Amino acid sequence: MKNTRIPVLDKGFVELIDHMGDDHTIVSAARVSYLQESKGDEKDRSLVKYMLAHGHMSPFEHVIFQFRIKAPVVVWWQLVRHRTFSFNLQSGRYTAFDDNEYYTPSRWRIQSKSNKQASELGQFAERINLDGQERSIQDIYKSVFEFCFEIYEELLRNNVAKEQARLILPFASLYYTGYVTADLRNLLHFIDLRSSQEAQYEIKVYAEAMESIIKEICPWAYKSWKEIKCAS
Amino acid sequence: MKNTRIPVLDKGFVELIDHMGDDHTIVSAARVSYLQESKGDEKDRSLVKYMLAHGHMSPFEHVIFQFRIKAPVVVWWQLVRHRTFSFNLQSGRYTAFDDNEYYTPSRWRIQSKSNKQASELGQFAERINLDGQERSIQDIYKSVFEFCFEIYEELLRNNVAKEQARLILPFASLYYTGYVTADLRNLLHFIDLRSSQEAQYEIKVYAEAMESIIKEICPWAYKSWKEIKCAS
Amino acid sequence: MKNTRIPVLDKGFVELIDHMGDDHTIVSAARVSYLQESKGDEKDRSLVKYMLAHGHMSPFEHVIFQFRIKAPVVVWWQLVRHRTFSFNLQSGRYTAFDDNEYYTPSRWRIQSKSNKQASELGQFAERINLDGQERSIQDIYKSVFEFCFEIYEELLRNNVAKEQARLILPFASLYYTGYVTADLRNLLHFIDLRSSQEAQYEIKVYAEAMESIIKEICPWAYKSWKEIKCAS
Amino acid sequence: MKNTRIPVLDKGFVELIDHMGDDHTIVSAARVSYLQESKGDEKDRSLVKYMLAHGHMSPFEHVIFQFRIKAPVVVWWQLVRHRTFSFNLQSGRYTAFDDNEYYTPSRWRIQSKSNKQASELGQFAERINLDGQERSIQDIYKSVFEFCFEIYEELLRNNVAKEQARLILPFASLYYTGYVTADLRNLLHFIDLRSSQEAQYEIKVYAEAMESIIKEICPWAYKSWKEIKCAS
Fold first, then answer.
1. pLDDT 10s digits, D178-193
2. Domain contains D106
3. Is residue A103 a part of any domain in this protein?
4. How do residues B65-75 score in pLDDT, each as one tens digit?
5. Contact state of B170 with A170 under an 8 Å Cβ cutoff
6. Residue B88 forms part of a structural domain
7. Beta bridge partners of residue C124, listed in sequence order
């Protein structure tokens, strides 16, 4: 599982760099309350489910994942709000942005009617009128980036500070690469929130990639969490 | 002090919404270790300085500030990385951006020669060549926003979801309004980092505004912190 | 409400020292996502309930309470595990313990049959056999403290370090006084856990005292939280 | 290094259960700001030192250690105050205490004259007067535990709840076993505080055991941290 990159969106990825612990770690941490450890697979597995079902989440903090993630700022913008995670990110003050390192949605979603902050499922826009002409959104999008990157690069050539030149770029679309370290308790909470119907598609697919990694490393915890989630 | 807006940058502000505690709160929290409280102003003041000088910072966690802040995303992008703070922010998924709610730098700083991630002090660019023409950066900047907002608004009129339409905007410059609640210990740490020479000017001025509020509410802590900072 | 001490157990208390914000703070923080504030009491109240019911808890972090608490170590031992709280406590390394500042249970609970870590409801022990004699637990308890405090005080008279002399005392029963600062989000979570049937009686009564303070300061949030809790 | 128990005090230990990452992890996390990784041992090592010397500590959060620790409550009482650590501990509500699982100091330290909360270096008490008789502190200590455990066990035989019966024991001396997971940034901070002259001997020796493990796993970070510490 380590060092396999799961592709996400058009140019992003989630890569498991390292992890500490697995299902057995949860069991040992839980059973330390009465100074015991494993009682065999069947009982251990039940215990993991019991802990999840009753919200006894502290034993899940001893299982840790380190990811390398490449995602557009619009995703990081939501990701960095998870304050128990540890982050180190590429710096736009330090490193110039590359003119093809931005996210292009494969489809343009329609605003949801029922939920003011979300998109409608399965409905898309393709063309809009601009300056009296009907044009594809994809073409317009591309031309915005070409226009903005041309200026950005000219600003850099004129020695304008990178920390300021980036103000001119469609920042939310730029890909940033970074490290994220998080424990299983808080990762499951993150996935709960960010794989929900309310979540923005762009972060949902990152949550799903992390979910698939957790499924491999902690199959007991994953299966129970999924069952509890589906039952509720 | 409450409900006074300190203007920051061209359209931003820092406003103290509420606070809990002051210098005396620090003293009481510190002296609970031996079940005492105030010993008079002079001794109390010395105690505050002693705690700061020796890194005994836990008593400073009981003094809390709630701010309402309006700042460009480039500032929030750094602000939200302070993981002990509590945040609630305007949502670009929920609320459409207004075409004049973006930050225009008054000056374009030159990249620092010695520090790869910072700007040179007191050196500015004004004009660059674009398409064979010398033009003012300010004019170009304005035209980028006009161009991008025209498309953004057309996308919204065509019912493209706000969460996706924003990908086309120069996101880092957009003003977001939000609430930030933080304790004095972590605020002083924030100001230490973000008012340093290495910090980006745009966040520095927000750190300074918060500093001026702390100075009013906790004059003893502020003065000692400043003295210790200057001496080191 | 401020500076009123709610008596808890035989010699303890919970005292509200200060607080920041109330129900309206939650509303403002929640509505900043679309740049609005109050919409009148009825709608505001519904919003608070909606946030609680859907687990949108970040707006509750801007309401802060500072308590002064006097509780036996057995209570603090559980209290300090709430890692989002800020603490400053009396120091047993610094301050000698007073020979009547310990907790005496009014009743001795029977071990639960169904729950290995809890007590049976409403069943108590009063007398046990010791050295062939039937004696009241209260009398034995008192004599243990007299015996241990006599040695503790003799150790101090002989200049043994306080940090070590305390090893001889029935530490879990000693009253410690301290400050606790916590936000409403994490306080409600604390009360959820510590006022449950599973919780130890000694901490439950502290959770209830804090609950009664929250009820006064944030009646909307409190009522909704209670309704949701009872419905689930 | 894994699964080796370092003995601490008379019956305690620190055992490295697992760890994630090492010096190279710090380097990768630091260099992601400009999208690079290793530049060879010499430069990588310098970078680690530079980060430590300038307080750029976020890259150290991606190196994680999980310990199994057996320590008296007086040590845990201080350890659990480190709120970034994850803990799972033996439960005195769940598990009866064993009558020989308590800490006996090898020496009884004298109260410091200059520091109200610490012990004098290298000065010890051995005998005190009790009931008109000169007796060794060790003998008295032992008899207190025999006396208290006799009552404790009688309470349990009479079915008094374990959560309450423990009130009668010299709780601070009882050994508890637990898991502690912490990142390198916060571990170094912990060791800074708890291996200082001001720290209580009993926790100092645990901090030293953790230090010796860090030294093995992260020799670059350790050496630099030590040099910077000694120079200041």
1. 999 999 999 999 999 9
2. no
3. no
4. 999 999 999 99
5. yes
6. yes
7. C109
> Inter-chain contact D183–A59, Cβ cutoff 8 Å?
no
In CATH, what number is assigned to the domain containing residue D11? Answer: 3.30.1360.170
Model pLDDT, residue D33: 93
> What tens digit of pLDDT does each residue of B191-214 get?
999 988 889 999 999 999 999 999
**Are A61 and D86 an interchain contact pair (Cβ–Cβ within 8 Å)?**
yes
The residue type at B94: Y
Q: Tell me what the pLDDT averaged over chain D comes to.
A: 95
Would you write out chain A's pLDDT as a tens digit for each of its 232 residues? 788 899 999 999 999 999 999 999 999 999 999 999 999 999 999 999 999 999 999 999 999 999 999 999 999 999 999 999 999 999 999 999 999 999 999 999 999 888 888 888 889 999 998 888 999 999 999 999 999 999 999 999 999 999 999 999 999 999 999 999 999 999 999 999 998 888 999 999 999 999 999 999 999 999 999 999 999 8
Show the CA angle centred on residue D216, arms to residues D211 and D220, nearest 5°.
90
Q: Examine residue B120 and state whether it is found in any structural domain, yes or no.
A: yes
Residue D94 to residue C116, Cβ atoms within 8 A:
yes
Q: What whole-number percentage of chain D has pLDDT above 70?
A: 100
Q: Give the span between the Cα atoms of D182 and D191, in whole angstroms.
A: 12
User: Mutating which of C10, C86, C106, C171 best tests the D interface, going by the most D Cβ atoms within 10 A?
Assistant: C171
Residue of D22, D23, D27, D62 to mutate when probing chain A, most A C-beta within 10 A:
D62
Task: Kindly report the backbone phi and psi dihedral angles of residue D196, in degrees, each rounded to the nearest multiple of 5, phi listed first.
Answer: -75, 165
Identify which of C77, C144, C155 has the shortest CB distance to residue D151. Answer: C144
**Contact assessment for residue D20 and residue D63, using Cβ atoms and an 8 Å cutoff:** yes
Catalytic residue numbers of A?
A: 194
Report chain A residues whose CB lies below 8 A from the CB of D177.
32, 35
Encode burial over D118-136: b for 16+ CB neighbours within 10 A, e otherwise: bbeeeeebeebebeeeeee
Is-catalytic flag, B194?
yes
Taking the C-alpha atoms of residue D141 and residue D136, their distance in angstroms, rounded to an integer, is: 9
Residues B103/B9, Cβ–Cβ less than 8 Å: yes
Angle ∠(A161,A163,A165) on CA atoms, nearest 5: 65
Model pTM? Answer: 0.96
Whether residues C159 and C186 fall in one domain: no
Contact B195, B208 (CB under 8 A): yes
Q: Kindly name the residue from C45, C68, C107, C194 that is annotated as catalytic.
A: C194
The parent domain of residue D62 ranges over 5-92+173-231
- Using an 8 Å CB-CB cutoff, list chain B residues near A162: 111, 117
Rounded (10°) CA dihedral C188, C189, C190, C194: 100
Chain D residue numbers touching A51 (CB-CB < 8 A): none
- Cβ–Cβ of C164/D119 closer than 8 Å? yes
Give me the catalytic one of D31, D68, D157, D194.
D194
CA distance B19 to C21: 9
Question: In this predicted structure, what is the pLDDT of residue A3?
Answer: 81
Verify that C78 and C129 share a domain, yes or no.
no
List of residues 6+ apart from D174 with CB closer than 8 A: D72, D73, D92, D97, D101, D102, D103
Residues B149 and B205 in one domain: no
The total number of residues shown for chain C amounts to 232
Nearest CA in chain C to B92: C33
Question: What residue type is assigned to position A53 of the chain?
Answer: A
The count of structural domains within chain C is 2
In A, minimum Cα distance to C116 occurs at: A34
Angle of CA points D218, D220, D221, to nearest 5°:
70
Residues C9 and C88 in one domain: yes
Contacts of B62 (CB under 8 A, 6+ apart): B20, B21, B25, B26, B29, B183, C66, C86, C88, C179, C181
Q: Which of C20, C47, C57 to mutate: most B Cβ within 10 Å?
A: C20
